[in-house]
Amino acid sequence: MQKYFLILFLINLSVKAQISPGELTKAHSSLEGMSNCTKCHELGESVTNSKCLGCHSEIKSLIQQGKGYHSSASVKGKDCFDCHSEHNGRDFKIIHFDPKNFDHKKTGYQLTGAHLNAECSDCHQSKLITSYISKKKSGTYLGLSRECKNCHEDIHQFRSKRDCSACHSTEKFKPAENFDHAKTQFVLTGMHQKVECSKCHQSVHQNGKKLQIFSVSKYSSCKSCHRDVHNNKFGNNCESCHNTSSFHSIAQSKFDHNKTAFPLIGKHRLTNCTNCHKTTLTEKIKHEMCIDCHKDYHNGEFLAVNRNRDCSECHSEIGFTPSKFTIEKHNTSKYILSGAHLAVSCKSCHSKNDAWFFRNIGTDCIDCHENIHGSELALKYLPENKCSSCHTNESWKIINFNHDITDFNLEGKHKNVSCINCHTLNNDGVRNIYFASTKSNCESCHMDIHFGQFVQSSGNYCFSCHSFENWKPDKFDHEKTKFSLKGAHSKIACIQCHKLITSGPNSFIKYKLEDFRCASCHI
Question: Which helix (H) or strand (E) holds 15?
Fold first, then answer.
């Protein structure tokens, strides 16, 4: 009998083992019993994912949306039981999850910035879970929304329709590094870029909390923020004159100054407004005469004659230079311009030591020109220090000097010789002009090609042979020498007796013969 009962017991155990391979975990313990097998198993088949997802609808929803860890490449396509094995006993850990070593990127929500230092429990709290199904379960990591305001307080109190990442980064809330004001309807330029945000975006108290208003609608005109210092005198369009670089930077090209009592002409159009409007742009400025704004550069030199004389007689708004004072006007003065003076710049005569003078500057040549001759020119040749006794206004090189009044009359070829040929000497590359120091003897200008053969006690006596017409010895008479040419001697060429000799570096014709014996020439 005992053996029979033992057999029945063993048969019973074998049947149970085939029907239930082991106890379910605590999470699935409510599914114990043969009547519940088909809730997870298909008859004759293994466990299917559809059965699992039929209960775990929150995971099914995430998979359908392609979100969450179960949609990642490392899980997608696997069977649920590959990771979540059952029938291993009540205390078996069906979920193998290590929060410290978990790669959060696999959930589709990569942790960056300050999120990397946050504890899992900082975000995965039951009070922050938005899914109703997950909210009923404790210890779940599912059901969190990815919206920033799900975890963080919305300090804008739902006023901002933008995603938080449009302005903020995960590194820190302040400053809003991702915010680009250029993408708003009000682009910041010029000085607006340096203004503190709170200057325009002021804070108010709402719902018991401080709220800074960023959605500003009152920016249609500058007057929304700035006071109209002109009291609407120039209308509402401030940009017609001003720009964002500076209130003091006026767009002169846009402002029509011609509508005022002082139309801007010439360089006045380029002048900065504050150069004239030193206090305010609307102040009344005296402008009847140029000196009302401009310093009298001539220090009253012209006003001393006529107090009502204005700069416009010589200058215009186009510029102080060139002057409107023409040559025709100059020739109505005491000093008439002629010759080379017509081409001389005004500065050459009227500017000394960087200062301009127009009245009482003198009319004599030496008032402007240096007497370069000094003591070389005797006063009798320079009466009253007037250079015009020799020179003209046309050119310094044109000389009208009468050389006959000197001790050296110009005769023959000398009449055609330039003055500088006789009256200048080069000293170390510097050409100096001499008159009184100039000698009148021939060798002071001409080279002695005879090398002293005709030198007398008073010097070379060139005139005994030569004239001023040419170098030929037209005045030479051989009969006045110690050797008279007679007979056949009168027909002999000079070179037959007067040979070319060389003495050192010099070669010359020997004219002064010492030996007149016949044997000296005839053998």
Answer: helix 2-19
Distance CA 100, CA 122 (A): 14
pTM beyond 0.70: the answer is: no
User: Does position 367 have pLDDT exceeding 50, yes or no?
Assistant: yes
- Which among 244, 265, 240, 242 is positioned nearest to 254, based on CA atoms? 240
Which 8-state DSSP code applies to residue 32?
-
Structural domain span for residue 480: 454-520
Q: Who contacts 511 (Cβ-Cβ below 8 Å, separation ≥6)?
A: 450, 453, 454, 498
- Residue 295: inside a domain, yes or no? no
41 phi and psi, to 5 degrees?
Answer: -110, 145
Residue whose pair of structure tokens reads 């003091």 in the numeric block: 248
Q: Residue 427: in which H helix or E strand, if any? A: strand 424-427
**Residue for token pair 């009998």:** 1
Backbone angles phi, psi at 54, to 5 degrees: -65, -35
Inter-residue contact 169 to 161 (CB < 8 Å): no
Residues 387 and 461 occupy one common structural domain: no
- Count of structural domains, the chain: 3
> Which amino acid does the sequence have at 453?
Q
At residue 282, the pLDDT reads 64
Last residue of a domain, one of 124, 150, 176: 150
Task: Examine the domain organization and report whether 382 and 487 are in the same domain.
Answer: no
Q: What is the pLDDT of residues 227-250, one digit of tens each?
A: 888 777 777 888 878 888 887 777
pLDDT in tens, 150-208: 888 888 887 767 788 888 999 998 888 899 999 888 899 999 999 998 888 888 898 88
Q: Which among 156, 121, 153, 158 has a CA at the least distance from the CA of 140?
A: 121
On whether the CB atoms of residues 267 and 319 are closer than 8 A, the answer is yes
